Structures are given as C-alpha cells and as structure tokens.
Amino acid sequence: MKNLLRHSPWLALFGVALFFTSPASAQAPAANDVNGPKLLGQGGNALPVNAALPTIWIIGDSTVRNGQGSNPGNGQWGWGAPIEYYFDRAKINVVNRALGGTSSRTFYNSNWPAVLSNVKQGDFLFIQFGHNDKNGDLTGANATIGSLNGIGDETEQVSGRGGQPETVHTFGWYMMQMVEQAKAKGVTPIVCSFIPRKIWADGKVIRANADYFPYADWAGDLAKKENVAYIDLNAITGRKYNALGPDKVEPLFVPTPSEHTHTNWYGAVINAESVIGGLKLLAVDPLAPYFSAIGQSIPAADPAKDPLDGTSTVTSTAAADALYNPANAAPASGAVSPIGIASAAPAGKPSIYIIGDSTANTRSAVILGWGFPFVDYFDSAKVQIFNKAIAARSSRSFIAEGHWDPVLAQLKPGDYVLLQFGHNDTGTPSASRAGDRPSLPGLGEETQDVPLPQGAAVTVGLAPAKDGDAGPAATVHTYGWYMRKYIADAKAKGANVVVLAVTTRDIWSNPNATFGTAVSQTATIVTQTDKYNIADDKVERGLDDGHGHNFRDESREIAKAANVPFVDLTDINADLYEKMGREKTMLFFPQDHTHSSPAGADFNAANIVAGLKALKDSPFTALLSAKGQAVAPADAKYVDNNVPAAVAK
Hints:
- The protein is of the alpha/beta class.
- The protein has 18 helices and 18 strands.
- Strands 11-10-12-16-17-18 form a 6-stranded mixed β-sheet, with helices on both faces. It has a 5-stranded parallel β-sheet with strand order 2-1-3-6-9, sandwiched between helices. A 3-stranded antiparallel β-sheet has the order 13-15-14, with no helix packed on it.
- The relative contact order is 0.10.
C-alpha cells in the first residue's frame, strides 16, 4: 500500500466496531471518538465486572492485547479487545490480561501468578503465546525472554533479568504449567495457536506450522497432551489471508516499517472472529451458552468451506483500506453496504439516497446506523435505497473528500435525497487531521482558508498556499453553505431533498443521575433495575455546535429557505425518550452517547419513516413496504412541508 506511514497517527482515532448483522453480511466498524471503544475487561489489572458470573480470562502477548487495551496510541490492537463483543456480558465476564512483549516464559514467571490468584471454578482461560519466544534463541537480549523449542522437559541455564541465574524451559513446558494450574482450580483452558504474520511466499502467507516458527504445531501438541480444547487460530486466519491475497491483507496491519505482526482494529476483529469460529469447530463448545447475537452469527471455521463466508473479513479489509487511503472511502462504503450495491437504480424506479455520517451508516457488534433498518420499511420493487452516508464525515468533509460528486452523478429526476449532518461539524477548522472536519458556524457566506494537514484527502475548495504554509489551504465554508450546496446540486438534477434534523444524543440535563449503583451513562451493559433518582431529567435537543448555534434549529432554517421538506427527528426522538425515561433510553446507546444499538437504529428509522409519512401529500407513502405502512405518521408539528405557495395544493 502506498503512503501508509503518514496515516499511522490517525489509527488511534479508530476504535469500535465489530459487526452486528446477519452471517452473510457482517460489516466493518466506523471511526470512534478518541477515547476508543467502551470495553469493560481491558487493562493490565482488569478484573471481572460481575464476580457472580463466570469469567473468560485471556492471556497472551501484544497480538492479544497492546498497551492498556483501549485506544493504544500506536494503532495496534489485539484480538482480545474486540472479542468482548462476541459474548453476552450479562452472562459472562471477559477479562483480557494479555501483555505486549511477553513470551510464554516471561508471562508465566511474572504475570501468571496474579491471574491464577483471581480465577475461580467455572471460569475459562484463552492462552496464546509464541511471537516472543524467540525460536529457541537464548543469546543476547533473548536470554531474558526466549524459551526453548518444543514441548519437552529440556532445560538450559542462562543469566536472566538482572544477571540472575535462571533455568529456562521449553515453550510447551510453560504453557502446560499454566494449563495444569488452571485446571486444578476448576478452570477450562482453551489453547490457541498464535496469529499468522504478514509474510508471504508464492502468494500464500507463511504459516507457523510450515517450518516457520512452528509454535502453532507445538500449541496443538501440548493441547492434545493435556486433553484440552485447541483452536488453530494460525490456520483459520491464515486461510482468510490466503483467500484475500497480500494487497487486501496489507491494510489490516499497523503501517510501520517492516511490520508483519501487529494488527490494527480491523485485523483484530478478523482474528477475534477466527477464535469464535474455532470454538464452534470444537466437538463440544464450552462457551456456546454465552455468545452475544453477533457471536451466534459467526459460523464454525470449517476448513472445507469458504473461510470468508459469514464473517466480516471482506468488509473489514475494505474499511481498513479506506482508513489508510481516504480517497477509497466512498467506493469502500458502497462495496460493503448491502444497500446500494448497484451503481445506479434501474430505469423508471426512483432511488432514495441517504447522505450523512455514522449515525446513518455504521455497523458493529453493538452499534448500527439507521440507514440499515430503514431499507426494510420500503418496497424494493418500487424504490431502491442507497446508503451513501460515511462515518466520521461532516457536511464539509463529505464534499471536500469527493464523496458527494459520485452521488450527484447517479442522481436522476424523481430521486430523493435524505440529508442529515451536524454531529461532526462541531469544532474549529485547523491544520490538524482532527480539524479537517469542522465547518464554520452558522448559515452565512463567511469563509476561512485553513492549511491542510499532511496527506489530507481534500479534492475541492482549495486555495493557493500562503507564504510560510507547508501546503495548500482549504477554503472552509459555513454549515449552512454546505447544506445549501447539497440541496441546490440535487435540485439541479431534478431530485427531491428532505432535510433531517440530527439524531438525538443520550445526554441529559442532570448528568449526575444515578441508578442505585454506580453505572456510567454510556455503560455497555446495564444490569441494574433501580430507577434513577433525579426528577425532571430532560434530554439534549439539537446538538450545539460550540458557537451558540443549534444544528436542529439551523437545519430547519436551511430547509425553509430552500423550500424543501424538513423532518424534526431530534424532537420526535427526544419526546419519546423523555416518555421512556433515561434508564430505558440508555439501552439504545451501548457504546457512547451518539451511536445507537440495532434496536436504537430501528427506532430512528421508524421515526424518520413516521416523519416522511407526515409530510403533506407525501410521495413516500406509496413506496413503503408492509412494515413501513404499519408505521403511524408523526404529528404534523414535527415536520415542515416548506412547499412554495405557488405550487401548494
């Protein structure tokens, strides 16, 4: 891949996501905020969230957990982080105690005692080592970390840490000590072979059990000797890599010089799914009762079947490629979405294009954009839905990165554009990568020339570089200017535009509300049933841009001035949330205060349909499926028809 290095700082911004979908259409995650995904069981001293439940303990090296397991600044993610989402954490804890840089030897000597002291009968243990065991080399720096090859009882004396004498054992000996000690405490061990490296020969990834660091074979041998479950993670992921080929595998790894071992979030997800597929290949899967919905959707990793079938591998690689190469983001989005695969709708059939951000188009084990369930409300024989929204985009960046022009080229008379932006328009434009999204506040014609960050993918709105600037500058406009451009461009093609107010966030007027016990407003799982103790709690409406402007209000003004319909999704949602109460509303937001669960996505989609049906002489009513017809129209107070008087009936 070209120019990978320049994007490595960007990797820290990309976190959540796994893939909530049917087995045939798993989907890649979208960008998350800088705090990373809301994971419960990561960190060097992580403990079970609910001590009354069984716990999955995970131990290994950096390919299992890097840093503190949450938004590592180097972009490296191990599979022990995303695997949390494949289990129902109301039934089982997941605790990732893996540690980067450890070998079977160093983990056993330094880290295993703390894990062993916390495990209990009925728990489970995933164990994966090999990357740092140094292939039997105990010379130089390897003397303090390497283990001997094989699974036998051979030993060798070395000068270990601090120059102290140490008896070094084989890789298998250390693994067997941990397995046997875990079994003695009533824990079920599951041995995994280590993930394959990104090293190729004759178009195939070099596998560990093909005379290259044969730790996979040794892991299998010791599992058989100890009569414990074995997942050949190396083989399962290796088959995926071979099916993808080098070019598609490349973006799954962190783009540092000579990197062949450490995956980014997307690569970690692929490996996590390999673990789940491996569990289902066992004669008896001990974790079958504990899978989440997404875990249940992953098929067994049957070597006789297509290794990519039913997994998110293809869509993960597309998303990873878009991450490294932003210019590819629009094609990748279209390619991985089951909505809008075709390049254009058939003649005579209208199309609905969704233009927006991750609240409309993102998929993971716990979050879903409303654009996905939205398609079920329409009759595919009458209309085609194209979900062209892209995560992390603002009204400005969707245009500036070139995503609008391909949509515009497809629009034809009679089509519809559902336009919704605002969540990523907040902030101040700057030369940093984080600053290439914000639009200027307000609805005016003001502009500002902002130097572009190194490697920024901006294709329009360029101004000449100023003296002293490292490169060209982007001419940034207001939120209103960009929204007006979408509307004017679409109208020029004969398409109809409906402006949607932003989705309502899970932010309330009493931030210190409690639920009887300490529960974060954005907790991934809520098991408490106590009612919150703050009265008259009101949900945020409209999203302030930080400059005294409200995106709900401004989108309404934009629609009115442009004579296009407006649906106030913000207030539709907010009124219902306040009737539901904060505790129930929170269940629609499993990751953060912005991104919805699948149920929350369907809630948003149904409310949008209700708003569209409430429009005067709504053209959408005739296009609806039976599911859409069953939705009651919203109250007229939530919509503005904005039809010019000259053409109003």
